[in-house]
Design goal:
Layout lengths: L2 E5 L8 H17 L4 E5 L15 H7 L3 E3 L2 H5 L4 H7 L3 H7 L2 H18 L4 E6 L3 E2 L4 H14 L3 E8 L5 H12 L3 E4 L2 H9 L5 E3 L24 E4 L6 H15 L3 E3 L4 H13 L7 E3 L7 H7 L5 E4 L2 H9 L4 E5 L4 H8 L7 E3 H6 L1 H17 L1 H30 L1
Parallel strand pairs: 1-2, 1-4, 2-3, 4-6, 5-6, 6-7, 7-8, 9-10, 9-12, 10-11, 12-13, 13-14
Helix pairs in contact: 1-17, 4-5, 5-6, 7-8, 10-11, 10-16
Length: 407
């Protein structure tokens, strides 16, 4: 029986995009390796203590995972001794809440024995999609340790990159990625960047979250107007500027706005904005997505005309439904350009830093893009829809590769 080791990089709850990655990646593996047993290594919950996200046992049960195994990071919790304890954010929890040498030793032995016990059964290791933002110990360990312990191939499901300035971190990223047999990326921008770093085993794909099915059982107060505009915020964006953007959209375009958070932190951020600006309540609604599944949240985007998003997965959800998008993000964050470029929508990208430095000019640019989208809506929608089959194929490439490799 084939055993696939799946290594999770980000927690599968709290953020609907990350949840979608787990759902679609595991379904993709099952589709092309329908007889395989699946073992998954989740990031240690204490590593993400600050997110306060509920743990993901219910999601794993729905996905019918055969076994949950310790994450490679738990092995590294003992390597390097006390000094390393301060370096790893998650390890600090252990350091301050238990005799750290004993606790980390127990975790390390558990990780090693679990992996070694299944070593002979493992056919392939798979790392799930994530943005490679730094030479974070979680990222690096997720690539190097499974390959070294099992001596079996490692396939990286589509990942994206952020420009890394530190040369030491670049070297670590290169070592981690080069340890994989093949690295799928989310798009051409990340592919070019990795190749410039000296990583040759790169194939351009697309985020598997694009394959997420939507559930239409949506109930919110009032009917959603399909001529309305959706906004998916990011809690790090200055609220005063987002408030100004909402005000100008409703004033100049007379459009209704639905704020659709896809991260638990963004809901409280958006609610605070609406509480502070009571006048928005007439034309702006906040959708409570905290207890919605990723599939239900995706279905929300079918109810709007276009989306302005500060996060990448809402853009992926909306485009998969044929909806035009405007992205606001750092120009150094390639995952947005990876997505937009494959739909011919790079001109709908707005640099986050420029938005903060020149808010009036940037808001006017957003209004101009919205007006252009509305003027040419049928053509833009048609252009998006005709690209969807090719994008779905790219999102499924890792599954096809796994099947071909194991056959």
């Amino acid at each position: 029986m084939t055993l696939v080791n799946i290594i999770g990089i980000l927690p599968p709850v709290g953020n609907k995009g990350d949840e979608a990655i787990y759902i679609t990646s595991i379904n993709l593996i099952k589709k092309y390796l329908n007889q395989a047993n699946l073992a998954i290594a989740l990031p240690p919950r204490w590593y993400y203590d600050k997110t306060n996200a509920p743990y993901a046992q219910e999601i794993l049960e729905k996905l019918d995972i055969d076994k949950v195994i310790p994450h490679p990071l738990e092995l590294l919790s003992f390597v390097g001794g006390k000094k390393s304890m301060y370096a790893f954010k998650g390890i600090r929890f252990l350091y301050y809440h238990s005799p750290h040498e004993l606790a980390s030793l127990v975790l390390s032995l558990k990780a090693v024995t679990s992996i070694m016990r299944e070593k002979e059964k493992v056919c392939v290791n798979v790392t799930l999609s994530f943005p490679f933002e730094s030479a974070n110990i979680l990222y690096v360990s997720s690539f190097i340790i499974p390959k070294r312990l099992t001596h079996k191939p490692l396939i990286a499901f589509p990942i994206s990159a952020v420009f890394i300035k530190n040369n030491t971190e670049k070297d670590l990223v290169r070592i981690a990625l080069s340890s994989a047999d093949v690295v799928f990326t989310r798009g051409p921008y990340t592919t070019r960047y990795f190749k410039k770093l000296g990583v040759s085993n790169v194939v351009t794909g697309f985020d598997p979250a694009f394959l997420l099915e939507s559930h239409e059982d949506i109930n919110i107060k009032g009917d959603m107007d399909k001529t309305s505009i959706g906004i998916t915020p990011h809690s790090s964006f200055p609220p005063i500027i987002l408030s100004a953007l909402i005000s100008q959209i409703t004033e100049k375009l007379e459009s209704r706005i639905y704020i659709i958070p896809t991260d638990v932190r963004d809901f409280n951020y958006a609610r605070a904005i609406l509480d502070h600006n009571r006048q928005f309540n007439k034309f702006c609604k906040l959708v409570d997505t905290r207890r919605m599944s990723a599939q239900r949240v995706k279905a929300m985007f079918s109810k709007i005309q276009l989306l302005i998003s500060f996060r990448v997965h809402p853009i992926i959800f909306a485009l998969s439904l044929g909806k035009p998008v405007i992205a606001v993000a750092s120009m150094y964050n390639l995952k947005f350009l990876d997505v937009l470029s494959q739909f011919g929508l790079e001109k709908n990208f707005i640099d986050r830093e420029a938005f903060i430095l020149k808010p009036v000019e940037s808001i006017n640019k957003v209004i101009s893009i919205i007006s252009e989208i509305l003027d040419y809506y049928p053509l833009i929608e048609k252009n998006i829809m005709r690209r969807i089959p090719n994008i779905r194929f790219k999102a499924e490439l890792p599954g096809l590769y796994l099947k071909a490799y194991l056959e």
